Prior knowledge:
Elements: E1 3-6, E2 10-13, E3 23-28, E4 32-36, E5 42-44, H1 53-61, H2 63-74
Antiparallel strand pairs: 1-2, 2-3, 3-4, 4-5
Amino acid sequence: MPTIKRFAACKLNINPHDHMPPHFHVLSANAEWMVAIATGEILRGPKDTRAIRDALAWAAEHRALLAQRFEELQR
């Protein structure tokens, strides 16, 4: 699963051959979240998102880039 961005407490990965909807994974030392690219909705993971606050903020600002990377990786 290619890492798209690293943060102090976590990293953001995309697996383009994973199930739909297009999403990315945020992995910390203790947990994993699955987040929809189009909406930023957390599809799976712990309710406490303090550990991934930076990743969610970055993803909200870079949704178009994430969607583009998803498409590129699918090829």
